[in-house]
Write a structure and sequence with these properties.
globular, Luciferase family protein, two-stranded antiparallel sheet, Luciferase-like_dom, F420_OxRdatse_MSMEG2249_pred, oxidoreductase, alpha/beta, F420-G6PD/mer, 2 domains, 8-stranded parallel barrel, TIM Barrel
């Protein structure tokens, strides 16, 4: 690869981003990820066609080197013993390449599906329960994470406990990651300046908690559209932005992290195409409709917080995130089989049939 446009920061990527009707595409995407030398392959779980356990099991058998990460699932969506069982089975199948990404989500989602909302106390205790179960310990617990009179995995493989990565935007989530997790996954559409501020919070928290500085791996998520026609670039970046900014409270947190005036969020949410949509916009709207909605967002909301244009432009954006303190980038929007232009000397073939 041309040294002038090579990346000095490890790169990972998402498989099956957004709305997916056929999860089998993940196999070819995983094959492409290994050919490109990506460090980590991430799955954003969505109920229906992107079940974490099934897809991680499949990917573990068609790859040998790339790490496989959930980015993200939630503690309360599975019984603690089932989640620990899934994780350790994935460790056994992948020879220790599994990473468990955990998020908080929003209270409205948990109310809608009848599950308890996340609190800082429940997240910390769930993490401890998870690690103990993965080590084969017996757990008796009654507290913020629930009531579990007697839990144990009868058989655990000779594999380490998977790394736990927490998805965060604001300072409280970043501090939680700095104290209790092995890594932090930063949200898409944070500018390099916002990432630098996030890294500072994590490192300061590590120090105050008595942890070695740098023990928490910082993953910065960057939406990428490399060497695409203008219309396709807008579809990749703009449509992805809508799915985040449409969520009340969530969009405001992203705007605040970037130091942006949140006023455009009202214009976005009042768009006629979003009327009556309570869930994710991409579960209802086509890509063309999402692009139309995205047109009301300020240009800088995508231009400053994504990597677009030529391969050189994208790698220069990656360097800005590296300089901000990111340990690894998670490329989003474009799947690994579409990232070939970033790696001009590496052939990305059709993969496995």
């Amino acid at each position: 690869m041309d040294a002038e446009i090579s990346s000095r920061v490890p790169l990972g990527a998402y498989t099956l981003p957004g709305r997916v009707s056929d999860p089998r595409a993940a196999v070819a995407q995983a094959d492409a990820a290994e050919r490109l030398g990506l460090r980590t392959l991430w799955l954003s779980e969505r109920w229906g066609t992107k079940d974490l356990g099934v897809i991680v099991g499949a990917l573990s058998q068609v790859t040998t080197t790339v790490r496989i990460a959930s980015g993200i699932t939630h503690f309360q969506s599975r019984h603690p013993a089932l989640l620990a069982s899934l994780a350790m089975t994935a460790q056994a199948l992948s020879d220790g390449r599994f990473i468990l990404g955990i998020g908080r989500s929003v209270d409205a989602m948990w109310a809608a599906v009848g599950l308890p909302r996340s609190t800082n106390a429940s997240i910390v205790d769930h993490a401890d329960i998870f690690r103990r179960l993965c080590r084969g310990e017996k757990v008796r617990y009654d507290g913020p994470a629930g009531r579990y009179p007697s839990l144990r995995l009868n058989d655990v493989p000779d594999q380490p406990v998977p790394s736990l990565v927490f998805a965060a935007i604001g300072p409280r989530g970043l501090e939680l990651a700095g104290r209790h997790f092995d890594g932090v996954l930063l949200h898409p559409f944070l500018t390099p300046s916002a990432v630098a501020r996030a890294v500072a919070v994590v490192r300061d928290t590590e120090r105050s908690a008595g942890r070695p500085v740098g023990s928490v791996r910082v993953y910065a998520t960057v939406v990428v559209a490399c060497d695409l026609p203008a219309a396709e670039e807008l579809a990749v970046v703009g449509a992805r932005a809508v799915t985040y900014y449409q969520i009340p409270g969530f969009g405001e947190r992203l705007a605040a992290a970037n130091g942006w005036d949140p006023e455009p969020l009202e214009r976005l949410r009042s768009h006629s195409l979003l009327a009556g949509i309570r869930g994710a916009a991409d579960s209802v709207l086509t890509r063309e409709q999402l692009v139309e909605v995205a047109s009301v967002l300020p240009v800088e909301w995508t231009a400053e917080a994504a990597a677009v244009g030529s391969a050189r432009n994208c790698h220069e954006a990656f360097e800005r995130y590296r300089d901000a303190g990111a340990d690894e980038l998670v490329l989003h929007g474009s799947t690994p089989d579409r990232l070939g232009p970033l790696f001009p000397t590496i052939k990305v073939g059709p993969g496995r049939e």
